[in-house]
Backbone:
């Protein structure tokens, strides 16, 4: 069994482990490819397409995070086509979503000279903050639809299935069943979704309130009644009679 | 909310219980039919019966535009808003209905209407077209509005033309060809012959015939079958793609309504050739009559022993199930279609793996377009060399073209591959509407490109069109005379893609929206000099980097309009 194969990345021929993705092979070779949706612990779905590279012989650009290398593959990670796509995707994202708490994406936007004001007609997504439970808030104006929260809530970790999508296309939003409040859903408040959210769209309630200028004492008072409601609900489901 | 009687739904759910999640769309259709929309308790009952998480049931309801999670009017009217119908005045029709509705007293039946603009309904030769409670209405502008809202009106018939009738031999008779008539016309002879032939030889015959897929991607059918036949698996599937939602396309509708058994026969032969035991037909939710015709045909075939076990006294067993879509163009994309049959949101999958190795339910699957399958009995009955007598070396056989727009006789034309475009347009379809002349034609639908007067001599084959930079696609040709503003057409196409993007990948999810916004402003007459570069960047990024064919072609028509008619997009 031959474990390594030869590929050419940006004019350099390298050996790489068979079965690895272009992204992994490039990293091994010290070439960095930007990523947004990719996460080591989540199923890769090839959503953001920021990682696209040009593979000779392929009609379209290829997402490096999911495409596996083949022997003799010739890859260009910074061709004109690649740069145009990446810059445009950054500009699309910046005109759609509030990226103010996504420093990593902002740094990449800067690196690619993307113009965040490129699309003056853009209808940005501005849903109101959802504050329906004592543990975390959901500010989907900051959501980049990376799907991580949906995936960790389902098969990637928790098997709780509290959230999925509403709408489709540009109107897509992460949502509970018929948009019910989180405490009425199957959510167990494990906090995994908050942990993987890269943009501050999901945020611990305490942090959110602190950012809004509340003192820790005020926060205790604000969230007490919600915590009590939740506790009652849990007691009821433990003794349904 | 008043008490909802769940018992009729629960009764229907009993029969779905053993199927699990794959019965989700059928169950949601049932709920919607019973209650007019899908009330939350109904969704909960469905989730429980099929063992699907609640949030995912909601996700599915929200994905499909024909499913409503909130109450809607007693009567739902869809008016087509895509190019062919727009040319025929659909926008005025829409406004008139709205006006009448708003002028009606609050307690009148008219106030209980929900009126929506819809994407192409596959009735383009009968423009402007409408659906009233799912029932198609041809030439909706000729109905009084009272008739229209009560669902009275002309039922669309088939309008056929062309120089040969091979695929359409049994079409246009004014009725659906049922089993007995189909048999009299030589039907199921090809199946008889196939079942006496080794499966590999069938595949060789299809390869020798040079049959190429008619669903848009132009993939060689024989190679596809061979790959699925070679894939090691006990369980395999044949899927008939009858989602037909490419704006301007209506050929599969006519084939299904007029000659459903020819499609079943094609599926049966495909199933035998690749070693499948089961087939699915996925029909778009807007196609009520085609669904009924296919459903009856499946029942007839089952009763007569053409479906089931030991078909025609052989070892071959095959069953067919029909699934209805629910308003999502993306579900015509093969992997999104599988997801939909599996009871999920219609998100396309990453490829590889390809359907021939991991398709429906993860099993090797052949998915073919309706028209592709209709070619199969023709090839098997008379042999590949006979089939090749028509057409060209690289494009053998005949092709169905859907002509609509500013043409004297819109309709479905069957012609041999290789005739020049002007012959089809002027000699067969009567040319451009009287008093006007040809400006452009959209080839291949929304995902297509514009042809200009320079293209009138192009021969209609895969190879000639490719060289001319025109997609044959599914055979759509929408014609525009010199009075039409192509920017308005581009705006409609941009809206179509913005509505139909599934939202999975970023370039298409946001690019289709930006493209639409820019086109909206351009059509208002406010062109910025930066728009050219904006449209080019968004367009090429979608083309280069989108996950599936929808995004990859979402800018195709606009980029071609910019190439052929640059002044339309520039400041004066
Ligand atoms: C967005 C999109 C929509 C499509 N819609 C259809 C359709 O309605 N009918 C169809 O047969 N193929 C459609 N296709 C093509 C299918 O993915 C697939 O290639 C086809 O069903 C294969 O059949 P064929 O080889 O017989 O052409 C669509 C593709 C894309 C990307
Ligand atoms: S809420 Fe956060 S984790 Fe979830 S999809 Fe949006 S950005 Fe990703
Ligand atoms: S290209 Fe469009 S339709 Fe296809 S996966 Fe991406 S968002 Fe969905
Ligand atoms: S990182 Fe590869 S598609 Fe998002
Ligand atoms: S039915 Fe209106 S454009 Fe096709």
Residues:
């Amino acid at each position: 069994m031959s474990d390594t194969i030869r590929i050419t990345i940006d004019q350099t021929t390298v050996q790489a482990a068979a079965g690895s993705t272009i992204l992994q092979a490039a990293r091994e070779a010290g070439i960095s490819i930007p990523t947004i949706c990719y996460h080591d612990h989540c199923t890769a779905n090839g959503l953001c397409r920021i990682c696209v590279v040009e593979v000779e012989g392929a009609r379209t650009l290829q997402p490096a995070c999911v495409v596996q290398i083949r022997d003799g593959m010739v890859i260009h990670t910074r061709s004109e086509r690649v740069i145009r796509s990446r810059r445009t995707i950054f500009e699309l994202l910046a005109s759609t979503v509030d990226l103010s708490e996504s420093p990593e994406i902002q740094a990449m936007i800067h690196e690619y000279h993307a113009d965040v004001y490129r699309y003056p007609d853009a209808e940005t997504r501005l849903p109101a903050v959802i504050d329906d439970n004592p543990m975390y808030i959901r500010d989907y104006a900051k959501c980049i639809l990376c799907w991580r929260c949906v995936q960790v809530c389902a098969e990637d970790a928790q098997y709780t299935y509290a959230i999925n999508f509403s709408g489709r296309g540009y109107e897509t939003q992460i949502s509970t069943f018929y948009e019910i409040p989180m405490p009425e859903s199957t959510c167990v408040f494990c906090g995994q979704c908050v942990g993987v959210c890269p943009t501050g769209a999901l945020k611990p309630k305490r942090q959110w309130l602190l950012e809004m200028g509340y003192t820790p004492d005020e926060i205790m008072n604000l969230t007490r009644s919600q915590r009590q409601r939740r506790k009652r609900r849990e007691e009821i489901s433990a003794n349904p009679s | 909310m008043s008490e909802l009687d769940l018992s009729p739904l629960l009764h229907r759910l009993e029969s779905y219980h053993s199927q699990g999640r794959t019965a989700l769309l059928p169950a949601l259709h049932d709920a919607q039919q019973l209650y007019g929309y899908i009330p939350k308790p109904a969704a909960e009952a469905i989730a429980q019966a099929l063992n699907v998480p609640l949030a995912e049931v909601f996700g599915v309801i929200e994905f499909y535009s024909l499913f409503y999670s909130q109450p809607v009017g007693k009567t739902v009217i869809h008016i087509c808003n895509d190019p062919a119908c727009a040319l025929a005045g659909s926008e005025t029709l829409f406004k008139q209905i709205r006006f009448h509705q708003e002028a009606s007293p609050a307690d009148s039946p008219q106030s209980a209407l929900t009126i929506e603009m819809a994407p192409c309904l596959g009735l383009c030769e009968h423009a402007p077209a409408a659906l009233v409670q799912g029932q198609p209405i041809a030439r909706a502008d000729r109905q009084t509005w009272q008739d229209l809202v009560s669902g009275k009106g002309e039922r669309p018939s088939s309008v056929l033309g062309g120089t040969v009738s091979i695929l359409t031999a049994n079409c246009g008779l004014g009725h659906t060809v049922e089993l007995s008539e189909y048999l009299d016309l030589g039907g199921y002879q090809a199946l008889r012959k196939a079942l006496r032939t080794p499966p590999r030889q069938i595949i060789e015959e299809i390869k020798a015939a040079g049959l190429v897929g008619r669903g848009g991607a132009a993939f060689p059918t024989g190679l596809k079958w061979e790959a699925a036949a070679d894939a090691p698996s006990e369980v395999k599937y044949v899927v008939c793609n009858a989602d037909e939602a490419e704006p301007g396309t209506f050929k599969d509708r006519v084939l299904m309504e007029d000659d459903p058994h020819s499609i079943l026969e094609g599926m049966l032969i495909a199933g035998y050739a690749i070693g499948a035991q089961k087939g699915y037909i996925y029909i778009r939710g807007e196609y009520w009559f085609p669904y009924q015709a296919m459903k009856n045909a499946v029942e007839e075939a089952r009763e007569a022993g053409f479906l089931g076990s030991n078909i025609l006294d052989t070892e071959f067993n095959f069953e067919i199930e029909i699934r209805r879509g629910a308003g999502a163009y993306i579900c015509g994309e093969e992997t999104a279609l599988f997801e939909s049959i599996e009871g999920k949101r219609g998100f396309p999958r990453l490829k590889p793996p390809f359907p021939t190795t991991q398709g429906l339910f993860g099993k090797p699957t052949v998915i073919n377009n309706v028209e592709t399958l209709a070619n199969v009995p023709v090839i098997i009955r008379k042999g590949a060399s006979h089939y090749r007598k028509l057409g060209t070396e690289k494009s053998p056989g005949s092709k169905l073209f859907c002509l609509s727009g500013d043409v004297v006789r819109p309709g479905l034309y069957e012609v041999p591959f290789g005739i020049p475009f002007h012959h089809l347009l002027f000699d067969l379809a009567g040319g451009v509407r009287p008093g006007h002349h040809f400006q452009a034609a959209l080839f291949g639908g929304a995902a297509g490109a514009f042809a200009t007067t320079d293209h009138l001599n192009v021969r209609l084959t895969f190879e000639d069109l490719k060289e001319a930079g025109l997609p044959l696609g599914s055979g759509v040709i929408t014609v525009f005379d010199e009075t039409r503003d192509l920017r308005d057409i581009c705006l409609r196409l941009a809206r179509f893609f913005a509505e139909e993007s599934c939202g999975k990948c970023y370039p298409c999810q946001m690019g289709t929206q930006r493209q639409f916004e820019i086109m909206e402003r351009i059509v208002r007459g406010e062109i910025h000099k930066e728009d050219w570069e904006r449209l080019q960047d968004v367009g090429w990024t979608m083309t280069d980097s989108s996950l599936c064919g929808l995004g990859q072609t979402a800018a195709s028509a606009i980029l071609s309009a910019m190439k052929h008619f640059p002044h339309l997009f520039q400041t004066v």
User: Anything to note?
Assistant: The pocket of iron/sulfur cluster (ligand 3) is lined by residues B 330, 348, 501-505, 508-509, 546-548, 550-551 (CB under 6 Å). Residues 80-124 of chain A form one domain. Chain A has seven helices and nine strands.
